[in-house]
């Protein structure tokens, strides 16, 4: 039985004064009453490697959350949020993960672009775009990485020029999550001729439904296609849809990345704990738990999860006081490598059967985004294959170690060619 008392769940009530128990109970009660009926089948759906599952249903669920005031919790009330504290937001994400509620489809808008517009956008941009994010009527994609500028984001070469009151955009983006279902994309591009590296960049808001944009899904190891390559061939957006001044793109882009590693990471860890619990249950049921090597790996995973949570809470406290430094990079290294190792552990627990594809007819998954022909995978095969990417996306292990070395340890910067 899941404990209902926060102290029993390992939550330090001293960090969350002001009705924490009541707030958590309201979240838990609402989820229990609403993740039912037409939404019941969405429980646990749409996670990493399974983004194709029930997309239309999960979009409807997100809009239901919005109608009930459970989106954009940390936003100021004047922009449609609740002005929730960090503690309340942590509790929401924790309860959401414990309820096995479906993966959200509006993360890029709600958690990344929305806070960025609040921090850097004009009043007109906030008025135009924040309501559509808050009520989940407009979805966003992220146009950062390029074939020659993945981990080295400052090397972007996509260009934008002002022509007759509009930005004309040319170039290519890659690994563009959800571009095939979004209406808008925020694009980091070069707006000053002859500029290089961090200088001369712009952060543009661009409509995706136009003749100058081509979106091509990229098939992942799991057979699904969450992300895409996007081509801009004289694509356009209005002159006033640049966030910040021309040349401020790097500052805005880095501000957005700070929001990326926010309180939702603690909810993510609750999801990790549920995955570990299922791996342990599998090991007990098939006898793998009798293997001392498997038991040692399970214990290591259990300890790692608790170290990860302690560090995440310390980092969030530092963010709240403006002193996080490079700790977000430490967190990224921790969870990415832990999750990859869990995928490997799950395969080891299964043994030889992990190499056999399940009967594709055993589960009729509603794939209503895109459906490349593929072999259907089971839960653990998807976990193993997808978590290979955890150490790459959102900043690769190598990039995170460079950040830690330079910004935390004060070591000399890596020489550039």
TrEMBL record:
<dbReference type="InterPro" id="IPR037069">
    <property type="entry name" value="AcylCoA_DH/ox_N_sf"/>
</dbReference>
<dbReference type="Pfam" id="PF02771">
    <property type="entry name" value="Acyl-CoA_dh_N"/>
</dbReference>
<keyword id="KW-0285">Flavoprotein</keyword>
<dbReference type="InterPro" id="IPR013786">
    <property type="entry name" value="AcylCoA_DH/ox_N"/>
</dbReference>
<dbReference type="InterPro" id="IPR009075">
    <property type="entry name" value="AcylCo_DH/oxidase_C"/>
</dbReference>
<dbReference type="Pfam" id="PF02770">
    <property type="entry name" value="Acyl-CoA_dh_M"/>
</dbReference>
<protein>
    <submittedName>
        <fullName>Acyl-CoA dehydrogenase</fullName>
    </submittedName>
</protein>
<dbReference type="InterPro" id="IPR006091">
    <property type="entry name" value="Acyl-CoA_Oxase/DH_mid-dom"/>
</dbReference>
<dbReference type="InterPro" id="IPR052161">
    <property type="entry name" value="Mycobact_Acyl-CoA_DH"/>
</dbReference>
<keyword id="KW-0560">Oxidoreductase</keyword>
<dbReference type="InterPro" id="IPR009100">
    <property type="entry name" value="AcylCoA_DH/oxidase_NM_dom_sf"/>
</dbReference>
<comment type="similarity">
    <text>Belongs to the acyl-CoA dehydrogenase family.</text>
</comment>
<feature type="domain" description="Acyl-CoA dehydrogenase/oxidase C-terminal">
    <location>
        <begin position="247"/>
        <end position="409"/>
    </location>
</feature>
<keyword id="KW-0274">FAD</keyword>
<dbReference type="InterPro" id="IPR036250">
    <property type="entry name" value="AcylCo_DH-like_C"/>
</dbReference>
<dbReference type="InterPro" id="IPR046373">
    <property type="entry name" value="Acyl-CoA_Oxase/DH_mid-dom_sf"/>
</dbReference>
<feature type="domain" description="Acyl-CoA oxidase/dehydrogenase middle">
    <location>
        <begin position="141"/>
        <end position="234"/>
    </location>
</feature>
<feature type="domain" description="Acyl-CoA dehydrogenase/oxidase N-terminal">
    <location>
        <begin position="63"/>
        <end position="135"/>
    </location>
</feature>
<dbReference type="Pfam" id="PF00441">
    <property type="entry name" value="Acyl-CoA_dh_1"/>
</dbReference>
């Amino acid at each position: 039985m899941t404990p209902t008392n926060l102290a029993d769940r390992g939550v330090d009530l001293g960090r969350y004064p002001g009705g924490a128990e009541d707030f958590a109970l309201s979240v838990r009660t609402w989820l229990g009453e609403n993740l039912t009926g037409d939404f019941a089948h969405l429980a646990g759906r749409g996670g990493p490697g399974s983004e194709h599952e029930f997309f239309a249903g999960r979009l409807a669920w997100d809009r239901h959350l919005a109608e009930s005031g459970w989106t954009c919790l940390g936003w100021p009330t004047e922009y449609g949020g609740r002005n929730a504290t960090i503690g309340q937001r942590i509790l929401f994400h924790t309860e959401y993960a414990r309820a096995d509620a479906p993966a959200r489809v509006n993360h890029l808008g709600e958690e990344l672009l929305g806070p960025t517009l609040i921090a850097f956008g004009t009043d007109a941009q906030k008025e135009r775009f924040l309501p559509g994010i808050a009520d989940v009527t407009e979805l966003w994609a992220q146009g950062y990485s390029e074939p020659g500028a993945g981990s080295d984001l400052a090397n972007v070469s996509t260009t934008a020029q002002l022509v007759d009151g509009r930005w004309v955009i040319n170039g290519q983006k890659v690994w563009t999550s959800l571009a095939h279902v979004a209406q808008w994309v925020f694009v980091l591009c070069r707006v000053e001729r002859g500029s290089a590296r961090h200088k001369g960049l712009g952060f543009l808001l661009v409509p995706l439904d136009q003749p100058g944009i081509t979106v091509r899904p990229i098939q992942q190891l799991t057979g699904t296609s969450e992300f895409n390559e996007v081509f801009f061939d004289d694509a356009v957006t209005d002159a006033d849809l640049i966030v910040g001044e021309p040349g401020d793109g790097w500052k805005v882009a880095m501000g957005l990345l700070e929001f990326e590693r926010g309180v939702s990471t603690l909810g993510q860890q609750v999801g990790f704990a549920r995955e570990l619990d299922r791996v342990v249950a599998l090991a007990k049921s098939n006898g793998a738990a009798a293997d001392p090597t498997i038991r040692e790996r399970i214990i290591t995973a259990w300890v790692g999860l608790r170290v990860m949570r302690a560090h995440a809470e310390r980092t969030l406290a530092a963010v709240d006081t403006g002193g996080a430094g490079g700790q977000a990079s430490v967190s990224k290294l921790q969870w990415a490598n832990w999750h990859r190792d869990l995928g490997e552990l799950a395969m080891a627990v299964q043994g030889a059967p992990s190499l056999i594809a399940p009967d594709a007819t055993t589960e009729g998954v509603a794939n209503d985004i895109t459906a490349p022909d593929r072999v259907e995978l089971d839960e653990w095969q998807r976990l193993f294959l997808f978590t290979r990417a955890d150490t790459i996306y959102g900043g690769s292990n190598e990039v995170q170690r460079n950040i830690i070395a330079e910004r935390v340890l004060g070591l000399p910067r890596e020489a550039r060619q």
